[in-house]
Amino acid sequence: xxxxxxxxLLLCITTGTFAQDPCSNGRYAEEVFSQFxxxxxxxxxQNSNWANSxxxxxxxxxxPTNDTLTARPLIIWVHGGSFIGGSKTDPDVKILxxxxxxxxxxxxxxxxxxxxxxxxxxxxxxxxxxxxxxxxGAIRYFYKDAQTNNQFKIDTNHIFIGGxxxxxxxxxxxxxxxxxxxxxxxxxxxxxxxxxxxxxxxGNPGYSTKVHGxxxxxxxxxxxxxxxxxxxxxxxxxxxxxxxxxxxxxxxNPGTPLMYLDGSRMIHERACAIGVTNQIYTFxxxxxxxxxxxxxxxxxxxxxxxxxxxxxxxxxxxxxxxANQMQQQAILYPTTYCDGSASNEICTGVGINEIAAIxxxxxxxxxxxxxxxxxxxxxxxVLRVFDLSGKVIFETMNLYSSNYEMDLGxxxxxxxxxxxxxxxxxxxxxxxxxxx
Length: 436
Fold this sequence. Notes:
alpha/beta; Rossmann fold; Immunoglobulin-like; 2 domains; 8-stranded mixed beta sheet; 8 helices; 18 strands; 28% strand; elongated
């Protein structure tokens, strides 16, 4: 009896030690495996693409060769490409999958639905939603496997998601976009429902989409305030001269200006303000996703992500690449829950008092097919309409009207800013979504 108790105590001590330091013997911190095994083109789901044809969704699975562990942390990587191109075999996701598989992780690099047309903000938002739905389908795929065949031997308490550029944007929105009303500035509830909602129909229904951390490579959130207290931790790497997805807050421009997003610097500031664990590494004077074409930047990215992951998992290994000095000042603009609009970048001169008055200017119907009415509680003098690039697409003066009917049916689908100026100089603004 005494011998049996001793054995149980030893087992408990051993188990407890592993739980305290999952990086025992260097696993997850070092390349403890010399090789990895790749299984390509596993189907995890399917869904309708922007052209209403079916896209079969596939992933490549990387794992340590001859690994005997039966519960391994998983990183799901999402490639970039502005939501119109790219591949699950792109260099960034391929190299990172290989390197982290040698450290003892299981890794998956996924394909997702690409393409949108015309190239406007409304269709860009839909492309992001489709990518979010597909990544959630992939997450469910691994939860389903863990509860059924257990082919991949995943520890579902440690599932991480990440990627570069569009892939990072996708991962950030999977983690932090969790309420339909948050999208109300960008698309109607009915339009979202017609696409399958935030969860989507990309496969493996009924299983969890919970993740435990985000790896953000040069990505952004539509609104920084979608990151809330209690959300999962994240790490970010970003170049200060990124002209595609800006380091701070700015206009996303993959060749065509689309919309303003809050970059890694803004996300970091928000996370610090609300107590969400996060780290950021700044590539000074570097452009978009610099680690794809620069091996030194890739090595730094690998070490920084490695440090973040082992810290989140509770390892006691030494850090290899601590966060460096951030650049630029991130100023968090005023927001309310499910309304991060308060946009001071679309037009200049917007202040907090002007933002507070926004609810007294009404545009209806909204969303609109382009024909709508502007109504205020008192007569206004000047009316302007801006697109998301800040360009004035309509202007009229000397109105002295509190009710004005407009027709913007010739404009592309997307989000527009309506601005009225009163005789005393006060400004009021509101948003209008055109969907035809």
